[in-house]
Amino acid sequence: MQTRNRPPSRQAIALLSTLASRPAEWCYGLELSAATGLKSGTLYPILIRLAERGLLESRWQPSEHPGRPPRHAYRITATGRAALAATPAPAPRIKEAFA
Amino acid sequence: MSLPRWILRTATHNPPAPLNDWALAMRREFDELQGGELSWALGCAAAMVFARLKVERWFWAMVLATPLIMSYVTSDLVFKGVVDGWIPREALRHYATLWVTVAALGAFPFAVLIGFYRPARALAPMLIGGLFFDHVFLAEWTSLSMDQPYLGWWGLNATLYGAPPFIGLAANLAAWYAGARTGGWLRVARAPA
């Protein structure tokens, strides 16, 4: 799949920051949704895009609940950490700037 | 099956290869939800639609453009066929022969091409091609060839290819489906073992 090298969006930065705060842990989609406040319709396109760019890696992990099938889990890569470090802090939202 | 689960199942059904893991990931997370199933399922459905469009953009462009291109090609062929005499004018007055003519010159070969391009994707060409083509083609056919307003086609005495609309539509969808399946079969048969 082709990818364009657009700068990461505010939501993508939030997601990368969440993953970077737990660099050794594998996080599930629901955990990331809860931590970032992103709904599934925003979360998955970002996860797909970041995985395509090699900024995060994914693997199937056994579920914590016995008898349940494995779940897809995500972890930030070294490239992801470098990309996050190179990303300037996002400008405040208009609402926040005038608050 | 609950509505949210049905939405998610439908949206993640038969995904293109690069999205296999993502479709399964969405389903597995759905199984772990403790509430908000509908909004999660709708979000996943929207994400899958856009991801599919991105991954298979040429396929979808082809599916959407084909009925438009086809309506002109088929109209021209039918018109020339009648003028040149290789399609008997009388054939266009009967449901079966009209449908066979239109299917042979339009739906079937175009669906074969799409099926050949993307095997195992017969449903989308059938629904989009079949339904859309009927509207584009019949709108043109009724207004230009039969000098009737398109909407006049509908009503109690409406017909599709000279048959009751349900039969005409089913026949057209069948031609699309058979074409797409044939194209897929040709592609698989042609692939090296």
In short:
By secondary structure, chain A is an alpha+beta fold.
Radius of gyration of chain B: 20 Å
Helical content of chain A (DSSP H or I, runs of 4+): 40-55%
Summarize the biggest pleated sheet of chain A.
3 strands, antiparallel
* Radius of gyration computed on alpha carbons of chain A: 14 Å
Helix content of chain B: over 70%
Distance between the termini of chain A: 41 Å
Number of helices of chain B: 7
Mean pLDDT of chain B, as a whole number?
A: 81
Task: Describe what this molecule looks like in 3D.
The complex is a heterodimer of chains A (99) and B (193). Chain A has 99 residues and is α+β, with helices and mostly antiparallel strands. Helices cover 46% and strands 14% of the residues of chain A. Chain A has five helices and three strands; from the N terminus they run H-E-H-H-E-E-H-H. Chain A has helices at residues 10-21, 29-36, 40-52, 78-86, 94-97, and strands spanning 27-28, 56-61, 71-76. A three-stranded antiparallel β-sheet of chain A has the order 1-3-2. The longest helix of chain A has 13 residues, at 40-52. Chain A starts with 9 loop residues before the first helix and ends with a helix. The relative contact order of chain A is 0.20. The model of chain A has no long low-confidence stretch (mean pLDDT 86). Chain B has 193 residues and is mainly α. Chain B has helices at residues 3-11, 20-31, 37-55, 57-84, 95-117, 123-145, 165-190. Chain B starts with a helix and ends with a helix. Chain B has seven helices and no strands. The A-B interface holds A 1, 28-30, 39-45, 47-48, 58, 63, 65, 68-72 and B 18-19, 21-22, 24-26, 28-29, 31-33, 39-44, 46-48, 50-51, 54-55.
